[in-house]
Amino acid sequence: MSFRVPLLLVFLAFVQVILAGSPHPSAKYPALIDATLMSLSEGLESKSFSSVDLVNAYSARISEVQDDFHAVLELNPDALSIASSLDRERSRAHIRGPLHGIPILLKDLIGTKDKMNTTAGSYALLGARLPQDSTIAKKLREAGAILLGKTSVSEWANFRSFNSSNGWCARVGQAYGPYYPGQDPWGSSTGSAIGASLGLAWANIGTETDGYMVIPVSSHLDTIGTLARTVKDAAYLLQAIAGKDPNDNYTSAIPNVPNYVKACKLSGLSGMRIGVPRNAIALGSTTTFEPAQSTAFEKALSVLRNAGAIIVDNTNLTAAEEFWTSSIPGQVVSADFLVDLPKFLSKLNTNPNKITDLSSLRAFVQNYPSEEYPDRDTGIWDVTLLGFNSTSPEFWVAYQKNLFYGTEGGLLGALDRHNLDAVIMPADYSAHHFAAPVGAPVVTVPMGVYPAGSTIVKDPRGLVERAEGIPFGLSFLGRRWSEEKLIEMAYAFEQRTNFRSKVKPYKVPKTELRDVVGR
Ligand SMILES: *[C@@H]1O[C@H](CO)[C@@H](O)[C@H](O)[C@H]1NC(C)=O
Ligand SMILES: *[C@@H]1O[C@H](CO)[C@@H](O)[C@H](O)[C@H]1NC(C)=O
Ligand SMILES: *[C@@H]1O[C@H](CO)[C@@H](O)[C@H](O)[C@H]1NC(C)=O
Ligand SMILES: *[C@@H]1O[C@H](CO)[C@@H](O)[C@H](O)[C@H]1NC(C)=O
Ligand SMILES: *[C@@H]1O[C@H](CO)[C@@H](O)[C@H](O)[C@H]1NC(C)=O
Fold it and tell me: Which residues form the Amidase domain (predicted)?
C-alpha cells in the first residue's frame, strides 16, 4: 500500500532527546538505557542473552514507566513468538543482518498487518485492519527486527486541532518528556522520542511532514526517520529502511543507498562547509529565545571549527520571513490530506467506524467523548474542508510556491549560493520546517541542556517547555540524498561533545537483562 516510506529523513530527535552513547563492551549485560546495536548483537552472538530476553526486558521497562510518560500505545502480542523464531534462526547460524532479533518501536502511523492497530493515536481507526504491511514495516521484519509495539503520537500527527498539546492523543492521553516532571514532549513522534530517551527498545521509527503521515498527512511531504541513542545506531536503522519503494513514486529519485554506518567517522567534519542561517534562527528565537540555547549554539560552532569545519556565517534563507508567516505550506498539506486520507482509508480491509474521508473522520472525532472535543478542537480539519484539494489547479500554484520556500528561497538556495555541505540550526528553532518543503534530510544530535536556575516556562495547558535538565539539540540540514554527509558531520560532533552522557531522565525504568535472563 502506498505508505510513504524510505525517504531519508534521519531525524534523531524530534523531541529534545537523543544522544551520543557510551558503549559497554565488557559488560555481560549492557545497561538497556544505553545499549547500542553493537553491544546487543555481541550479547546475542555470545549467547549471554536471547532475543526473547530482550523482548521480556524491554516490555517490562515499557510497563514500568507507562503511567509516568504514556510513551506506548500497544505492544505486539506476537513479539515473543517472533523473537523465539529469530532465536532459532540464529542458533542455525542464519543471521539476517545487523538488526536480527533486535526490538524496535514504531510510531502509530506506521502501518502493520498484524495484531497491532495503526491509528494515529485516535479511536477512529481502532480495530481497522490493513491489507498489508507498510513498506518500512515489511523491510524491518525482513531485516530481522522485532516490531515490539506502537508509540504514542500527537494525535493525527498534530494535524487536527489548533488547541491541543504536543504528545496528546485520545488513546493514551497526554504523554510527557522524561527530563522534567510534566515536560512538554514535543512531537508528533512523541513516544518514539521518549522510547529513545528511556531505552524502551533498541531504537525507534518516527515521521515528519510538516506537515506529515504513513497514515498519510501529505504525500508530497511525508517522510520517515529514525530516533536512536547514537548517530551510528540511527545509521544502522536508516540503512535497513532506505531505498526506492515501488509503492511510492516519490522515492524513485533516490540514488544508490550508500553505507551510512561507514559514514560514522571521527574525521567527518574535516573540510565541511557549514552555513549559519542567522535570519531563520532569529525567526524561531522570537518565540523560544533562551540564552542557554544561544550560548550552547555558539559553543557548538567552536567545536565544529576545531574539528576542521569551515563555518560560513549569515548564509540567510532569503524567503524565510515570508515562509514563516505564509499560509501556503498549510494549504499544501491540507490539500494533500483531503485526497491522501480517503485513498488510504479505501485500502483498509476492515474499517469498523466507516471512516471514508475527512468529513466522516471529523464527525466521528467530534462525537466520541475520549477525543475531548470541543476542548481539543478540530480546527485544522475545519479549515481544510473549506479549501481546495491536491487534484485542483490551485494546488500546483501553491505547491510550486511551497517548493520555492525550500529551494531558491530556502535551504537549497543557501546551500548552493554559499557552496555549503550543510546548514545548522538549534533544533528547537524549527529546523524541520526549513527542510520539509523539499523533503530534505535533517540529523539532530544533542547540543546542551538547560542549566540549574533556568526559568520554568509552561505552555497554555501547563506542559513544561523549559526547565533545568531539559536537553536541546543541534540540527544539520542538507540537500536531498545527502544523508551520508550529514551523518559524517553529526557523528563527528557527537563524538567530540557526548552531551548524551550529561543529561539524565528524572525517572528511568529499572528492569535490566539480568532480571529476565533464564526466567
Ligand atoms: C487493537 O484494537 C482492538 C480493538 O480495540 C483491540 O481489541 C486489540 O487488542 C488491539 N490490539 C492490540 C495489539 O492491542
Ligand atoms: C483551548 O484549551 C484551553 C485549555 O484547555 C481552554 O482553556 C480554552 O478554552 C480552549 N480554547 C478554545 C478556543 O477552545
Ligand atoms: C508509479 O509510476 C509508474 C509510472 O508512471 C506508474 O505506472 C505507477 O502506477 C505509479 N505507482 C504508484 C504507486 O503511483
Ligand atoms: C542575516 O540575517 C541576520 C539576522 O536577521 C541579519 O542580522 C544579517 O544582516 C543578515 N545577513 C545577510 C548577509 O543578509
Ligand atoms: C477535489 O476537488 C474537486 C473539485 O475541485 C472535486 O471534484 C473532487 O471530488 C475532490 N476530491 C476529493 C478527494 O475530495
Answer: 53-218
